[in-house]
Amino acid sequence: GPSDQMGIPPNAECGLLSVPVDWDNADDPDGDVAQLALLRIKATGEKIGSLLINPGGPGESGKESAASMSGTLPAELQERF
User: Fold this and answer.
1) What is the rounded radius of gyration, in angstroms, for the C-alpha atoms of the chain?
2) What whole-number percentage of the chain has pLDDT above 70?
3) Which end of the chain is more exposed for a tag (fewer CB within 10 A), N or C?
4) What is the value of pTM for the model shown?
Protein backbone atom coordinates (compact mmCIF):
# COMPACT_ATOMS: atom_id res chain seq x y z
CA GLY A 1 0.00 0.00 0.00
CA PRO A 2 0.98 3.64 -0.24
CA SER A 3 2.01 3.90 3.41
CA ASP A 4 4.64 1.21 2.75
CA GLN A 5 6.47 3.63 0.45
CA MET A 6 8.65 6.37 1.91
CA GLY A 7 7.03 9.78 1.61
CA ILE A 8 3.53 8.57 0.76
CA PRO A 9 0.98 9.56 3.42
CA PRO A 10 -1.24 6.78 4.80
CA ASN A 11 -4.41 8.53 3.54
CA ALA A 12 -3.21 8.31 -0.07
CA GLU A 13 -4.73 5.90 -2.58
CA CYS A 14 -2.49 4.55 -5.35
CA GLY A 15 -3.42 2.96 -8.65
CA LEU A 16 -2.51 2.47 -12.29
CA LEU A 17 -4.27 3.82 -15.37
CA SER A 18 -3.73 1.97 -18.66
CA VAL A 19 -3.67 4.23 -21.72
CA PRO A 20 -2.94 3.49 -25.38
CA VAL A 21 0.50 4.48 -26.62
CA ASP A 22 -0.90 5.22 -30.09
CA TRP A 23 -4.12 7.21 -29.75
CA ASP A 24 -4.66 7.05 -33.54
CA ASN A 25 -5.15 3.29 -33.09
CA ALA A 26 -6.58 3.28 -29.56
CA ASP A 27 -9.20 0.66 -30.47
CA ASP A 28 -6.57 -1.90 -31.51
CA PRO A 29 -6.78 -4.68 -28.87
CA ASP A 30 -3.18 -5.67 -29.68
CA GLY A 31 -1.87 -2.09 -29.43
CA ASP A 32 0.75 -1.11 -26.90
CA VAL A 33 -0.39 0.43 -23.63
CA ALA A 34 1.41 2.53 -21.06
CA GLN A 35 0.77 2.37 -17.33
CA LEU A 36 0.43 5.72 -15.56
CA ALA A 37 0.91 5.66 -11.81
CA LEU A 38 -1.68 7.71 -9.93
CA LEU A 39 -1.87 8.89 -6.36
CA ARG A 40 -5.03 10.39 -4.87
CA ILE A 41 -5.55 12.20 -1.61
CA LYS A 42 -9.22 12.88 -1.04
CA ALA A 43 -10.55 16.33 -0.19
CA THR A 44 -11.05 16.86 3.53
CA GLY A 45 -14.34 18.70 2.95
CA GLU A 46 -16.95 19.01 0.21
CA LYS A 47 -15.16 18.29 -3.07
CA ILE A 48 -15.69 20.71 -5.96
CA GLY A 49 -13.21 19.22 -8.42
CA SER A 50 -9.87 17.50 -8.91
CA LEU A 51 -6.43 19.06 -8.73
CA LEU A 52 -3.83 17.31 -10.88
CA ILE A 53 -0.12 17.69 -10.22
CA ASN A 54 2.45 16.72 -12.83
CA PRO A 55 5.79 16.66 -11.00
CA GLY A 56 7.68 16.26 -14.28
CA GLY A 57 11.37 15.59 -14.68
CA PRO A 58 13.27 12.33 -14.46
CA GLY A 59 15.16 11.03 -11.49
CA GLU A 60 12.67 10.96 -8.66
CA SER A 61 9.38 9.32 -7.83
CA GLY A 62 6.45 11.29 -9.21
CA LYS A 63 4.17 9.80 -6.55
CA GLU A 64 6.48 10.94 -3.75
CA SER A 65 6.82 14.41 -5.29
CA ALA A 66 3.05 14.81 -5.61
CA ALA A 67 2.52 13.51 -2.07
CA SER A 68 5.03 15.95 -0.61
CA MET A 69 3.52 18.83 -2.61
CA SER A 70 0.04 17.98 -1.35
CA GLY A 71 1.06 18.75 2.22
CA THR A 72 2.24 22.23 1.23
CA LEU A 73 -1.00 23.28 -0.45
CA PRO A 74 -3.17 25.85 1.33
CA ALA A 75 -5.82 24.32 3.60
CA GLU A 76 -8.57 25.74 1.34
CA LEU A 77 -7.29 23.67 -1.59
CA GLN A 78 -6.84 20.52 0.49
CA GLU A 79 -10.41 20.89 1.73
CA ARG A 80 -12.09 21.33 -1.66
CA PHE A 81 -9.91 19.33 -4.10
Assistant:
1) 15
2) 89
3) N
4) 0.62
